[in-house]
Each structure stands twice: as C-alpha cells, then as structure tokens.
Task: structure prediction
Amino acid sequence: VSPLRAALVAVGDELLAGEKVNGNGALLGEQLAATGIPVRAQLVVGDDIDDIAAAVRYAAALAPVVIVCGGLGPTQDDLTREGLALAVGVPLERDPALEQALRERFAALGRTDVPAMNWRQADLPRGATPMANPAGSAPGLLLPFGDRVIYALPGVPRELTALWHAAVAPDLRRRYPSRPVVLRSTLRTVGLWESAVAAALEPEVRRTAGSPQVAFLASGGETRVVVTATGADLAAAQALAAPTLAFARQALGEAVYDGPSLQAEVIALLIAAGATVACAESLTAGMVAARLADVAGASAALRGGVVAYATDLKARLLQVPAAVLAAHGPVSEPTARAMAIGVAASCSATYGLALTGVAGPQHQDGHPPGTVHLAVAGPAGVLTRALTVPGDRAAVRGLATTAALALLRTALRRAGATAT
Amino acid sequence: VSPLRAALVAVGDELLAGEKVNGNGALLGEQLAATGIPVRAQLVVGDDIDDIAAAVRYAAALAPVVIVCGGLGPTQDDLTREGLALAVGVPLERDPALEQALRERFAALGRTDVPAMNWRQADLPRGATPMANPAGSAPGLLLPFGDRVIYALPGVPRELTALWHAAVAPDLRRRYPSRPVVLRSTLRTVGLWESAVAAALEPEVRRTAGSPQVAFLASGGETRVVVTATGADLAAAQALAAPTLAFARQALGEAVYDGPSLQAEVIALLIAAGATVACAESLTAGMVAARLADVAGASAALRGGVVAYATDLKARLLQVPAAVLAAHGPVSEPTARAMAIGVAASCSATYGLALTGVAGPQHQDGHPPGTVHLAVAGPAGVLTRALTVPGDRAAVRGLATTAALALLRTALRRAGATAT
Result:
C-alpha cells in the first residue's frame, strides 16, 4: 500500500538565518498527519526565485501534494508567485478579480489608490486559481502541475491555518476521495526515561516487526510512543494500530497521560476533583502557572500564584518560616514544602505546587545548576521530589516545569481523581 | 562575490509529523550566519535511508557545506549513518576506537556488556572521522564528499550546540581560512508596525538598491530590520552595512532596542538604574516574570510577582481596592493601575508592571478576547496603555507579554536609564 504523501516548502530568508523557526512546517505536518497524508519532506529556501523554483520541483518529484508557504506578501522580497511560475514553466498574469478585490480593500481603508507594490498581489501563475484568505489580505493559490497539485499559502500562521481549513483540506478531500492511509497515533508518557519506555515495549516491537511501526521520542521531560499504521483505508489502519496501542497502555500504566498536553490533563484532573491549584515559583518564575493557563478554561482550576524570585519574598509572601530558610537555605526540600503550604493558604487553593532550585549558569548557595526541589501540598499531605536536571538555564527551567506538573498529576491520581 | 554557503538536513519522522518543530535548523542557521556562512536551504526528511541519502545529495548540490542532524542514536529508527553511506557510495564499517569507547562507557555505568543495538553507534561510513561529543554519548562525524564536506550531529539541541562549538566551527575555520562573507545584521524594534518601519527606511532602501539588502520581519509584536551585506571579506561587508545601519538607527529612534532580546535590554536598563521590578499578571499568568527570568543574572533586578488569575486575588494579594473592582471590573485601566502599585509595594520593587485582559476564547465581563490593559508604576508615577491584540489565546498572551516589556522599557528610558 503506497499512501498519498505531501511535501512542504517554506520560503523566507529569516527561516534560513535562524531568526524564526519553521513552525508552519510543524503546523501543516500535524494537520496532514491527522488527515492520513504523511509529509515526506520539508524544505526551506530563501527569498530567491531560482531557489524557490528548484525546491518546488524537488518537492513535486517527492510527493503528489506540494504545499508552499510564505512569500505571498506585497514587498519586493515576496517572490513565491515568481518562483512557482518558473517551477511550472508558465508566465505570471494579473488576475482581474484579484485587482478588483485589492481596489475594494484599499477603498474600504479610505484610500483612493492602491500602492504600486501591492498590485503584485493580484498576479497569478497562468493556470492557478486564487483561494480567498478568510483571515488576512494575501490570497492563497492552487496550481496544478502535471499530475501534482501545488497549494501556496501565506506565512502568517493564523492565516495559513484559516486557509488550510477553508480551502486546502476540503480540496484534498474532493481530489482524493478514497485512498490508502498512514495513521500516526501517539501515547504521551511522563516520568520514565526513553530507554525504560523502549524496554517495556520491546516484546510488542518484536511481534509487530514494523507493521505497525513503533518509535520513541524523548523531549522536554516527556517520552512519546508513536505507532504508525498503514492501511488501504482508515478502518484498516486503525485495526492494525489498536493491539499495539493497547499493549503500550497496559505496559506503561500510570506513566501514560491523555489529553493534548500535560497541562490540559492536570487541569482536567483538577476540575474533575472539584479542586484548585496555586503555584509558588522560584527558578521557573511563572512558567508553571503560565503553562497551566495555556489551557482554555484554566480559570476553573487555576487560582494564581506567587513568583518568589528574591529569597526574602519566600518568607514575606509565602510564609516560609525564617527558621526553615536559615537552617536549610532557599534551595531545599523543607523550603519547597513550606512554599507549597504557604501558597495554597495565601491563594485559598486546594493544592499548592512549589518549585525552588538553581537554573544556572552560576551556582547558588553551594548548589550546582540543575538542582531542583518540588513539593505539592494538598488535602492528603505534602509530596516532595528532588531532582538533578541536565542542560542549560532554559532546559533546566523547562524540565523543572514539566516535572512539577507531573508531580501534581501524581498527587491528584493518588487522591483518586480521574480526567473525563 | 559568491560566498561560501551551507545546506542543512534534519532527520526525524517526528519533525515531519509536526510533533516537534525543527529548532535545530534555526539554531544552526543562526550560528552559521554569525560566521558569515549563510544557509541556502534546510531540508527535513523522515527515518528512511533512501530519503536521507537523496536529501544529502540534494543539499550537497546546493552548497559545499552540508550539516545533517538527528538519527545518530542507537535505536532501529536512527538511520543517518546508513543514509550518509548510501549518499556518498561507501560501505559502513565498525570503528575500533568507537567500539572501545562504547565498552568503556557501559563499564562506567557498571554494565559488563553493551546492548546489541548500541554497537551501531560504532559504525561509520568509510572515510568518515568521528567527532567526540562533549555533552552526550552519540559521537558526531565528518565525511568528505568530493569537494563538499558533510558534518553529522546528534539531534539533541544541547549536544548539537556543544559539538558545533567544539568541532564543526573550528573545522570550518581551518578548512576555509579566507573567503567571501555574507553578513546579516539585525536591528530589533518594538512599538512600530512593519509598514511604519518600512516607510521610515524607504529612502535608504532606494539608495542602496539591494547592496546591502534591507528586509523587514514582523513577529510576536516586534519588527526587525535585517541588513544583509556581501563582501570579499568581513571588513568589506561591515563597511557596506554600516551606513544603512546608522540610517535605520537614526530614522527609527527610540523604537530600536539592543541586546539579544527585549527582556535582556529591560534587565540591563533596570540594573543600570539600580532599580528592581515585580510583575502582577492576570491573562499572562506568569509569562512576563518568566521571560524576564530567561536572562541569566535577572535576580539582580527581578524581585518576583503575583499571578492573580482569580479576580479575588487581585484584591487579596495586590490590594486592588474593592471599589475599583466593583466600579470598573477586573479588565480595566484603573485595575491595571492598582495592580501595578500593589505589586510594587508587596514585593518591595522600584517598579510594578501589571497586565489584565482577556486571552479568550470566551468573552469576559463583556470584553472581547484581545482586550489588554497594561500599567507600570514607578517613582515618576503610573504609565498605562490599553491595546486590542489580534489572534488566538496563545497569540494574545504572547503579544501582551511583549507589549508589557516594551511599556516598562519606555518608563525606564523616560526616567533616564541607559543600558550599558
């Protein structure tokens, strides 16, 4: 079974210079994976007509569906229209309907004439169809190329997402109504090393011998199990993946979490338990509360918190006893414990979640960077965890944040909460 | 002048499926740009020997320097070694020194035998030289390919960065001691739309006629001016860029900020003024304090803060008068003002920085998502700003964070602070 695949081309000097990560590649990859069309390759090229054209031709040789993003704006470095025309071997032509739309857009802004450079946004490679942009001014375009199809989308993620849903996904469904599918299913785990996850699944990996395929992905304190199943249609792929997913769930037990993210699962567990949380943060300085607030609707469970970056604020705002700070120092298990109890009290939350530690690059109070103490205070008492986290300042803070959320999750599950 | 260029290949199914963004592409792009070797293209391919080999050959056709990252681990889906051997047309051979290193590494972990799959990490394409990894277990490798050179690095960003500095950058300096340079210089601005920045620089863009090249990049509430100058050597490129950079600095005035990031400049301004800051956050729930704490050494200026996500905590922890909350509601200029004054007092900080608003997706108290009120309280009084921010929940919170840091910067500059 050879599934339909896609290849992506992102355009922009700033991506090559590392001033911006290619988030659109990930965004489109996720959308395409969810429709059963895996991405075979991503390319990034600069604002250069020849390089754009060569990348589009390479992409079209790799996959029948090509999605190009970026370079559709009005400025002189927006060259995707020209690159596509060169790749396909057609001229650029001004589209009267797009010209009219431009005139109307500027008239609506109270301007009688369109700036000269903006007319370029009315140009299309011959044979292309414009796709209306529901979220911005740059239209997308659809360009047939032999038995391939090229979609070009604006680089602004919000506009790209809007055009994907409004135009690209529906066109793909019409164009390829029935087709082989590659289904990628992910189980997320926290609290286990990648090697431990791999060892737990070894018998199943041996049994499946690559169908479905099982891969492990460690990142940011989490390990994901990715099961990839190919089938003649969606039902066949699902049937192939199901036993492996069931095996993994059984073998990994409590380490598996559901929901789109760890913070989403924690918020769901809190809401299910009718509980709330407040955070007392030192080295993470707000990252834990901010990650919980990523979840739409977090206000039902997140009370707030205190960032006690300066040591004296741990005493003043979190009621950490002076004797504890004097005897154990700010980076210690007793201080984390007192911070958790203090923040739950001062914010009237069911649970207090506290972090103290050393982000680096300097030692602090004799402790090396990566030293982290976590505590969760709740109705059943206080749960603490000490860890030594590898990496630089950003990595230490990120891993400490994930570990803190995982500890809160453990406390909630021990208390009997179940996310619904 | 045709400068030396590089092409990057990242390997990993998880990148194609959008489970991870290609941060290594940005990381290497930035390092290469800083050494005057611009990246011509990035490619991402999956864990597939043929696709890796094809991507490496395509990259080598585009640029004399090829850097491959990822796929060097011990598991069955780490196939970069095999892909490189196929691309270059040489066999894989087990390296006795790497075998010995593996034995020693596992012995140091107290294990008498090396797991069977780990031996693969001792394999090298014929002609390759291993590069010791100062930060992890997977060695990198250097593989000559005709007049091209291929470097393969592990995908873990920390290990990749360590190997870049320890092995790749020194080897590039030795290999290409004197060469044409493309110098990319960036001026960062806050508080101006991209179109306003472009309009201010229009005369200079006309004058330079592409040499140096001037581009504008708007992202996350900031607009960057990127000046790209090509020269026979570094000094020539610098001389070409200098007048344009001077023009931009003059034309954009206070909007330009220096330092690696807005938060770094704010911390530097605070330290120079002998001042401190505390943050009172609602919709951002800790993001502003966390961003300030990104800066190593932030503890000299960041006291801490309060996350008052629940409305009652605005009164309880930040002393926002009940009358203000009753009359104006939590999302209002008077509440932001009172939060800023309250947090400066409770945290004993020179400046209090406050944010309140609606992240969405739901309306709150009749205000639509994107409604944001900012306030800075300091020795000279209170500065406020109201804004309406476009985008989804994540975008609103990100732009509100940037706008808050920009407002604090304005207050500090008006008070006469200069970063040194």
About this structure: The radius of gyration of chain A is 26 Å. The first helix of chain A runs from residue 13 to 16. Chain A touches chain B through 90 residues (CB under 8 Å).
